[in-house]
């Protein structure tokens, strides 16, 4: 039978408690040595083994740490300390679900340990187990004899997260006097007392609103006004409540007050219109809305938002009149982002055309008379320059790249030192397919103002899109702080996700899959860090009463992995892993491209490879993280490509399951893993989103082919799957789909890709024939630069000859005459 801490001799008990204190002050090396002293006499003391394992984890000896902890639990399975320690290590390694189970095991032994309950509550919030969170928070409040504010507030928040707003209100009403009473002791030595009280009162009012008690919330809001420090938040909530109570006159006055504070807040403006019974989306309200906006424009002439709002609902002559006001104001002010702010209007074809005519008229007036038709004063030459810049972007939007370049060149001749002109020229060249030229122009513009961080980062992005990885790295390190010990690693440490993604794409285009995967993983790791960083706020926000902001954090975190940078990187990583798997299956595995490894640095100077500073206590420094795998070899040399890809697939299915490409990626992985039922699920999910998606029929055809060729798969299940496919898609084929969508290059590319994947001389030859015609006129507007480059890549994959590629490049250049990328 194992010893517990109380059964150790007095000296060893003291050493054990000393080890726990050393953990609290982060003296891990000393704590490890203390555990070793105990284990010399009692080598099978389970709790000491577990604590020793914890210290090993913090000394970066993870494998040994878990082995030691598990050995300790085997010896002392009824020890809450052992389970608690295991939970701490799992939590440290961000294994939150496993950590939660460990804490629950610890509570089976020590059910009244508030420390364990408190940490369990954080974990349950982290993994969104809100129902269990309520139970845990309730136990904490029940065990607490001091009426601790963070405990009962935590319970209220738990009820709120489960939608039980009435219970949350009841808890706050029961306990709030311990905070609100200035004689209660909570105020003493608390410099943030006023702000924390303000937050608590505002949170209570918000709960009333969530519970549907709008009048009660409004009455409470008026009562608490003297104690509120967030005046803007108070005014916003008051205006919102008045509108919900249909007290439109009072609500209008409240929103008028808010507009005076911030006339560029679009939400205030829209709500103010609702107070007047108006809605910009209703055509019959247009005249009345315009009259109110005009009145606000007179009150707040500096508001750009008020100038832009009429453009969103006006049409015809009214639109031109309002656009004229904003355009002339912006041109005279020299606002480079004018086209960017107008771009959303171009989704309406009539408005895009009207804006083009309007600015063409300006250019003619300014060129001939140096003034606008309704003006008696000459305009600066720069006004014509900004007008030409807008027209260049207008022409670029409609694909007239030659005219766009001509206009931007004219603008540059007027003001050759204006950086924005070169940025627009570079963008036009990029859209025209001249990636190298775009990179050169962007870099030329950067030289005009080396301190402009925006154009510096834009230049880096263009260098990467031109596959100049080394040059991009030399440029971006100029933006890194001077005292950074390793500037390249600093870019990773500061989580510069746009750079890591573009770097991954560049390496992928260069055929270096290892480095590409390395950078995609860096993006994924950055997002994982964002997600895991919320952990500390689960307790901090309760202590500091910042509960409203905390709710915003939870909402933001819940949609974190929908960010386009993560989604794009995840899909690219899946494609890379699938490519590695296919190469290996074909007998020609990818070989990592070697490179001289980077020399590691510490913050105090250089260090030898492999050196580690084990002591990581207070006042001690760790070496800077060293890139031990600069080539991404560990990704290429792994033997679980599809399992790694599946991890990305699972995240995408959870967060962006509404995007068709998610299920295309999932299908590619499941099919290769021979998980045919999951592959069918991906097909059905895609069909539910878009039953005419370009990849849908090719996926069905490939699934049929996979089932036919897999002799190991059970015949009854194979028949059932084929039956399901037939019921949903009949005898759909690639040829019939391409014929049905014969004017769509997107469908042709999907079909050709499927033929190449199916293999066979006839399929590949047919795919090449189709791809060589990708620039044909019949495909019309679907001949985008992206699609034509995809066709080129598929030709290479299909083994096209140099002469075939040259023929294709010639035809593609007829569509994109300025291109250099074919």
UniProtKB/TrEMBL annotation:
Pfam family, one: TPR_8
TPR repeats: from-to residues: 80-113
Protein name: N-terminal acetyltransferase A, auxiliary subunit
The organism of origin for this protein: Coemansia umbellata
Keywords: Repeat, TPR repeat
Domain of life of the source: Eukaryota
InterPro entries: NatA_aux_su, TPR-like_helical_dom_sf, TPR_rpt
